[in-house]
Amino acid sequence: MAESSFSSSDLARIEEQLAATDQLLERSYPGDDGSRQPVHTVYVPADRFTPQLAADWGAEALATAEAHGGLEKLGALLGQDAELAGAVASRVRAKLESEPIEDLRLDFEDGYGDRGDEAEDADAVAAATTVAAAVAAGTAPPFIGIRFKCFEAATRARGLKTLDLFVSTLAAAGELPAGLVLTLPKVTTVAQVQAMDFAVSRLEEVHSLPAGRLRFEVQVETPQLILGPEGSSPVAQLPHVVPGRISALHYGTYDYSASLQISAEYQSMEHPVADFAKEVMQLAVAGTGIRLSDGSTNIIPVGDAVEDAWKLHGRLVRRSLERGYYQGWDLHAAQLPSRFAATYAFYREGLPPAAARLRNYVERTEGGVMDEPATARALAAFVLRGVQCGAVGTDEVQVLAGVELSRLTALAHPRLAPSTSK
Question: What is the pLDDT of residue 367?
Fold first, then answer.
């Protein structure tokens, strides 16, 4: 072995210099955990939730599609050729029949309003009781939870009370749902997120829950979270002041646009101010494992505007996916067909080239593109997302890419399975 120019003391000094960096990378940048991310979040007023709500939305979505020419026609409206539209339609139909809502948020904030403490107390307890019943019956979406009122002074006590009643009632009913999600809205400062961290930590202690069990989403819908008063970006600090506690950042289209004085007519998920905020959010959480969600469109497919609304929604869904936002909000059952049609088309169109490149990488076959490990991870993650949401099947991946699901997962998230990624 050739002698090194560096002495043992040189190497020790470098190790000492980089110890803090190693700790930062280990603690704050663990990467994605490989679990399923829902493709959407559905919002309903908290008092309207029933154990059959998801099935009802699925039936309404299918009925709307049939009333307007069927799911194949929807595919054509979204620009899909006949072959793709047929493949997508059969999968969307199955999805709407089996799992029409992936992530459901019972809303105690804007969608609920101020109904007085007595009514909200009762509704918070009832919501938790109904969620527990739905989970036990197997009718709840895989991800479900509440959005409570924000931590600004006027609503802070009310938000905390609702959070407490909901979590405490769920805990009393038994084990918490595996897909429990809590959403903190209208965040303006790092301190509000730190307060939320303290609140859920106390709930964990009170109910003997494992530390870190209660994670939460942060809604980014104020400019103060993107650019703080001292000129830095508070949203970039969040993953590091409460490491491991935040599960996702959700962009709030209309609150954010309105706060920047954008006229109502021009408030949109694709307005330049929205794109800027979402790009900052992407940078803030890159490598942290925190997921991202786009917002919603308030143009609903009802009345005489169904097809135009579908085309708009489908285009916006596709636009978000192309920009690395794999989740968004839906506000009405009639948005489900266009959500899943656009999402499934995105993955099915991208599957053949992504799988071919992945096969070449795995088999070390020379081709027109020489992909590096980072690109291979991105290719595998793309295919894996398609499998997880139901757009493509594991059998298709096996045929096209030559890898089984376990191997695909290891390629997408090598930190999670180093022994299988060799």
Answer: 60
